[in-house]
Amino acid sequence: MYPSRFYTPLLRGRRVLFTLFLSLALTAAVEAKDTLAILPFTGAQGEDGETIAELFSFQKDLTALFSPVPRTSISRAIRGEQGFQMESGMTDPDTIASLGRQLGATYVVAGTVTTLGSQNLLVIAILHTETLQQIAGDIQTYKTIEEIDARLPAMAKNVAAAVQKDTSKLPLLALPPVQMGGGADSREADALAQILAVHLVQSGAYAVYPRTKSLEQVQEEYGVQFNGDTADEYLPGLGKAANPRLVLSVTARRLGSRSMFNAAVINLETGVQEAGDTVNYQSLSDGVDAMEKLALKLTDPKKAAELAAAREATARARAALHNPVASDAASFTRAISAINNDTAGGEYTITLSSSFTSGPVAFTSNTSKTITLKGDASVHTISSNGGGNLFTVPAGITLVLENNITLNDNNQKNNVVYVEGGTLNLKTGSTVRGGTGNRTIRGNLVATFGGGVYVGSGTFTMSGGTISGNSAPGYYSSGGGVYVDSGGTFTMSGGTISGNSASGGGGVSVSVYGTFRMSGGTINGNTASVNGGGVHVFGGTFIKSGGGTIDATNRAKDDGRVAYVYYGRKRDSAAGPGVNLDSNVSGSAGGWE
């Protein structure tokens, strides 16, 4: 047995050897990673393409798998490559691979940005520089360059996952350029073909080889390779040692306002079409979804049919949600509840097929929504059964009253519509009546505001329709037809406000910091038990510019049967379309008598 002092140098030596071995192993592991060149993305504005490519090269999911090629080396290679044009888009895999090989990269990322309405569409693909196989790809949309930074991690993660899949046993599918027919837009068709290629790669049904050669050349080269030889002139376009047995023939056609994408998978050995289908689309935006459907039709017809059925069912459900018909209070309540629970937002139209009574209706502000109420071929009425304002419109909600619809508070001592931060649009064929105001107790006094419409911190736009038969009872009351509170805005370009009553402002009352602008419509036949039969202004702003009429059929016990501005400005004679009124200007210059 040796003393322990003889073991210490031996153990230290082993640790050194182990550390050295581990260091060499880690170095070899790092060196074993494939190199990845990320070219500047084409089609973007200014330097956006270069910026996106740089940000993409920093993604951890990619750097864990690859050793990125420095961006400066890529820039030099692109400047030296005469055949590569930055405006050409991601359409030339030969040149993309050539650039990658110049940089010593095993894989190369190319991307293109296409305008998609108000958005941008980013399509990326990773190609193997030797075989020209597209091994991964992804698609994202964004509005501004600031948004893309948040999109890139998900793209990198998807691409990294696809790279690690084994495609060696998949049938090889060649993708020649899209054939054009019937005036199809070549740039649009090219972008959609790139998207189709991404979906085919993601499907896992084929090993995909984007081509720069025509369908005929691919067929000819297959015959050459099948005989054991390879024509050197086709080598770059076909990839080394790649011998696709299948080829995807795609034709883009224009049919009036509609575009069509026809695709067929052809077996080069038998000449038989193994799969084929078509999709129609109206715009590039529709085409993006259409390419996903087409890829499914080609790779998994059963799943495509199931998806189509599910989408149709969803579309029917969305149609029922966005266009319900209310025949009674119960169906109306269900429609409102469904709209309130829908977080997607958008536009909804409720059509009444009969009249009924309803409790207070309050909309939920969980997203931006526009709700339109209208009757069918006949006029139908929603009458209040008490308990609060018939309709409350909070922030984020726009309530539109259209043709053949009447809202009636039925003298339940409430506002017909209370606009609480949202928007109310009154249009031709709609009526608001029967409101008796929002009652407030102030000591021993009872104050009532806004019989028909109370505009709080929101907006009321009246381009048509009628507000009549409403009142704000009591000595301290304002705005029989419409009351505009502090921060509220009322714009009137059409319609009629008539037959309403209050202490001040039988037709309209404008409070401190409220605003009423009138450019059309008629205010007539309203009554004020004190001041301002047509319009009453208490510290707010009222401007009538040209159009519209406030006539002398309005009545006031004291001052201003047509209009009254607190602290003595008044008008008793009719203010027709040629008369301007401005509460901020005194005397005749403001239209006052």
Present the secondary structure layout.
Layout lengths: L6 H26 L1 E5 L9 H10 L2 H4 L2 E3 L2 H10 L12 H10 L4 E10 L2 E10 L5 E9 L2 H19 L8 E4 L3 E3 L4 H18 L3 E4 L4 H12 L8 H4 L7 E10 L2 E10 L5 E9 L2 H16 L1 H22 L2 E2 L2 H13 L4 E7 L3 E3 L2 E2 L6 E7 L4 E5 L6 E4 L2 E5 L3 E4 L8 E4 L2 E4 L3 E4 L4 E5 L2 E5 L3 E3 L3 E10 L2 E2 L3 E3 L3 E3 L4 E10 L2 E4 L3 E3 L4 E10 L2 E5 L3 E3 L3 E4 L4 E2 L4 E2 L6 E3 L3 E3 L9 E2 L11
Parallel strand pairs: 1-2, 1-3, 6-8, 6-9, 7-9, 12-13, 13-16, 14-17, 15-18, 16-19, 17-20, 18-21, 19-22, 20-23, 21-26, 22-27, 23-27, 25-29, 26-30, 27-31, 28-32, 30-33, 31-34, 32-35, 33-36, 34-37, 34-38, 35-39, 36-40
Antiparallel strand pairs: 3-4, 4-5, 9-10, 10-11, 24-25, 37-42, 40-41
Helix pairs in contact: 2-6, 7-10, 10-11
What's the β-strand tally?
Answer: 42
Mean pLDDT across all amino acids:
85
Percent range of helical residues: 25-40%
Distance between the termini: 124 Å
Count of helical stretches: 12
Which consecutive residue ranges, at least 5 long each, have pLDDT under 50? 1-30, 82-88, 230-241
Q: Give the overall shape.
A: elongated
What percentage of the residues does DSSP assign to strands (E)? 35-45%
Rg for CA atoms: 36 Å
For the largest beta-sheet, the strand count, sense and barrel status come to: 15 strands, mixed
